[in-house]
Design goal:
With 712 residues, the protein is of the alpha+beta class. The chain has 28 helices and 23 strands. Strands 2, 3, 4, 5, 6, 7, 8, 9, 10, 11 and 12 form an 11-stranded antiparallel sheet that branches. The chain has an 8-stranded antiparallel sheet with strand order 1-15-14-20-21-22-19-18. The radius of gyration is 26 Å and the shape is globular.
Amino acid sequence: MKRFIVLCLALWAGVSGVRADEGMWLLPYLQKLNIKDMKARGFRLSAEDIYDVNRYAIKDAVVIFGGGCTGEVVSDRGLVLTNHHCGFGAIQQHSTVERDYLKNGFWAMSDREEIPTPGLTVTFIRRIEDVSDRILSQLDDSLSEQDRTVKVVQAIAMVKSQTKLDRPGQEVEIKDFFGGNQYLLFVKEVYTDVRLVGAPPSSIGKFGGDTDNWMWPRHTGDFSIFRIYASPDGAPADYSEENVPYRPPVHLPVSVKGYKPGDFTMIIGFPGSTERYKTSYEIDYTLDVANPNRIFIRGERQKLMMEDMLASDRVRIQYASKYSSSSNYWKNSIGENRGLKRQRVRERKLAEEEKFTEWANTDPERRAKYGEALPLIRKAVEGSAPLRDRLQYFSEALIRGTEIIGAVGAAIPLINAEKQVDTSRIGEIAGKLQAFYKDYNPPTDRKIAKRMFRLLLDSLSAEELPSCFAVIRENFGGDADAYIDYVYDNSLFASPEKAEEFLRRPDANAFLNDPAYKMRREVVKTYNALVDSIRAFDSVFYRGHRLYVAGLMAMNPDKKYYPDANFTMRLSYGQVLPYEPQDAVYYDYFTTLDGVIAKEDPQNAYEFAVPDKLKELYRERDYGPYAEKGVLPVNFITTNDITGGNSGSPVMNRKGELIGLAFDGNWEAMSGDTVFEPRLQRTICVDIRYVLFIIDRFAGDTRLIDEMTIVR
């Protein structure tokens, strides 16, 4: 009966227009484009309650967390919630074998125990302004793409210089939308004293690991807690003992009332990148080149990383964040190719392009304005594909994959233009190398480097490779392993001890003759040459893309358009709904702690371990006020349109109250960055009640509960 009711709700949603809603909408245009529809779906507030140029609103409680996630302020003392995987780098940064916060979790029981996290920032968007007229008025169609770019840069600089800020320290950023057909200005305020407050053990925060990543049903407590600190007057300030918890003008109330199928949901955050205006030519490149390369190269590297991580707690801590960062997009690429093929996205894009071409060609004026759009895109994509193929191999296998190259790169500023040691920079370089070596295991890097170099030798021709590969052929008889051993045995940067010894007595000749330096020099030289060759194609593509997007909007003037995601603040809205991924398979809209216990697997403890304390609470059904009808909700799904960068975004109900944190998409709709799939696309969220349960019952950190505004 329950399933019948839910399916009726879903059917009613599709028929009535209350359906999975496509779109990552810009906040200044909600009143014009969205609020009527949002209210029809159950939203109880106004557009001004979300974003208002004259007063604080919900948007002022949503922040950029770090450099690629979203967070939300949930107390009047600057408490911030985000995902565990967003805070993972900070948790790893503070972890050692003796204090293993990744394995055991961390909970500060007082302000004094909260841990400063150098390098971590939280960014507020204080103001958004459309400056399209001020920039586009400086341009005309007669400009070449290179000249247009120069003019845009100049116009942006002018607008920035004329922007009045509310107080010193605020930053101005201007970004383009719709392929350069629109420009928005964002005034930002960046807080640099951000402290770790709490994190569950990875057995909760990353429960399911790679196996469950992007999958539903899911059972992951993907959250972590931080606090913003400020100077006594509330302004951003670098870490100081005199800093105090930030007093935000707005924070989100937290609802423990739950949800039911069909309930309205709203997500505000910073989606990173979508390509909804992607053409069939770009899809061909993604399917045939970009994703296969990434899947293969990262897969090979990750196997070797995991071998050493499982063999050593020290290496596990050192490489946990690196592995997680690599594997997330690796699995995404697998799922994206699967989704693009299953959803026949290329065929759908071809049909759209045929319609566009027919529309453009039926009118001489339109043909003159938009007729070259698709041919330009095709020329750029197909012409640059072989170059991008090589560039990706160098990036994945060498620039990212061979870590000693990064160590050498950190030390390069030590040698000045006259090829002499700049002694004034020794302290700076020493600090950078110390940070690098903290999370570096020389044997692991040596092993991975051998695989990466062998992979390149097997995949590319001699003419395509950097000249250091000629050294392998000429001096080492083609034996890449012997070459790598030579580099790592003799480089000044192959271990922290060798680097420290070099910095005590730095010598320019020794540096310039270092085998790892020579290797990096040739790799970067070849890489940069490829980048330069691709730039000419980029100019062609940008013009074609801009014309194509403008043409699509002109072809369908009554359609509501939203720009591709570009890590600017957006809103999406939808519903809590189940789905049927395939024939005879039904997925409910929430999961419970029962599923966590059922998934425990001692044979795969790295991904599916359950802490003893959590099992004890389960046996005793000690759920406090966070259970519903005797079960503890863990995750739930909505139809909201999100992508990477939305991780940690607040999921709110019709009253703007926090009910969860978005953390993932679902496997069946991995083509979602290219085309929205209303029947299948779901956002996976951690239930705020599970978050509160872990804080309260599992960790016993009730002070955090007490400072939140809980709606019961």
